[in-house]
Amino acid sequence: MRKIHCINNISKCGTDLFTDQYEMTDSLEEAQGVLVRSASMHDMELPEGLLAIARAGAGVNNIPLERCAREGIVVFNTPGANANGVKELVLAGLFLASRDVVGGINWCQGIKDDPGIAKTVEKGKKDFAGCEIKGKKLGVIGLGAIGAEVANAAAALGMEVYGYDPYISVNAAWGLNRDVKHITSADTIYEECDYISVHVPLMDATKEMINKETIDKMKEGVVVLNFARDLLVSDDAMAEALESGKVARYVTDFPNPKSVNMKGSIAIPHLGASTEESEDNCARMAVKEIMDYLENGTIKNSVNFPNCDMGVCRGASRVAVFHENIPNMIGQVTGILAAAGVNISDMTNKSRDKFAYTLLDLETRVEEITIQKLNAIKGVCRVRVVK
Predict the structure, then answer these.
(1) What is the pLDDT along the chain (387 residues), one digit of tens a residue?
(2) What DSSP state is assigned to residue 299?
(3) Long-range contact list for 256-260, CB < 8 A, 24+ apart?
(4) How far apart are CA 251 and CA 240, in angstroms?
(5) With 30 labelled, which of 21, 58, 124, 197 sits at a CA distance of 20 to 30 A?
(6) Which residues are paired to 255 by β-bridges?
(7) From edge to edge, which strands make up the β-sheet containing 33-36?
């Protein structure tokens, strides 16, 4: 019986997919699989028997990826499962920034006891006038699952859309609206666009990518939208730009003590993926990823190991070896199996950065002494008997 632990509340649309071969447990210590949303796992003691962590969402900065890789724990995320929910909120952000809807609503609340409110609003509504987004230029930085949907939706609304992503996947490229202009430099977006929406992961290379230098390149009165990660934008640089009018509006889904007090900021309480549909989609994808991995050794949508799929094992046994991506590792693994008289019927090896994953289908079951020898190879992180 495989045991699964939920660190956060996970939609039953996902957990109900577990078969009778699985059991939910309140104890992290006895879990082979973990489902998590936003809870931080960096200071958690990870049990020796833990095999997989699935994040019901896209961002994984709450999970210690390097430590998990070295312990042979596969970390999954659910790219695209919440894309529509975030896209819709980005579109709402575009409208809120182009028309002073928030200011107008607040003003109406302030005069709600005025018996002549109908006449008052007709006189005062000019203070909240804005512009239409049709025909304006939108720059989308990052054309992953969410960025591509934002670009397509904005193009359908009549915006002139520029998309930038040096690492765009083939599938994402095929899915882009033909009217989206795929450009090769983010500077084009900074210099030419009326609206800029950021959709990249938070890494050392992207931290505070919206800063004084990049803001200086932007058009006067630009609108910046951040529904990706808080630290992609320099708060100090953004506050200064809003105060000067260089940036007309900053729409962020990540309120912090600085952003909520900036002149011209619209802070939304991290609602991007907070829809029933998004939570259900993420939960279903996360559960399917964990089940396929625990049952077959299949890795799909991992953020610390390469994708690998050999389908259902038809042989006597399947063994997975997690190891560093270094020379002669495969030779050592196959040498030990050969010495034990074990024949390999199928094998695949995939690498990703510093780590690699080798999956082997064998014609006979492997004895424990052979597993111990595989584990003893320098650079091996974990050996797992899948079947």
Answers:
(1) 999 999 999 999 999 999 999 999 999 999 999 999 989 999 999 999 999 999 998 889 899 999 999 999 999 999 999 999 999 999 999 999 999 999 999 999 999 999 999 999 999 999 999 999 999 999 999 999 899 999 999 999 999 999 999 988 877 888 899 999 999 999 999 999 999 999 998 889 999 999 999 999 999 999 999 999 999 999 999 999 999 999 999 999 999 999 999 999 999 999 998 899 999 999 999 999 999 999 999 999 999 999 999 999 988 999 999 999 999 999 999 999 999 999 999 999 999 999 999 999 999 999 999 999 999 999 999 999 999
(2) B
(3) 256/230, 259/230, 259/235
(4) 15
(5) 58
(6) none
(7) 22-24, 2-6, 33-36, 52-55, 74-76
Structure tokens at 362: 């064998």
Which tokens is 336 given? Answer: 């030990």
Give 21's DSSP letter: T
Strand 74-76 and strand 137-141: the pairing is unpaired
Helix, strand, or coil (residue 168) = coil
Q: Are strands 222-226 and 247-252 parallel, antiparallel or unpaired?
A: parallel
Distance, in Å, from the CA atom of 27 to the CA atom of 347, rounded to the nearest integer, reads 35
Orientation angle between helical segments 145-156 and 83-98, nearest 10 degrees: 50
**Residue given tokens 């980005």 in the structure block:** 90
pLDDT, one tens digit per residue, over 165-195 is: 998 887 788 889 999 999 999 999 999 999 9
CA distance 329 to 378: 9
Phi–psi pair at 345, nearest 5 degrees: -90, -25
Looking only at the bridges linking them, the beta strands covering 344-352 and 355-362 are antiparallel
Under 8 Å between Cβ of 165 and 144: yes
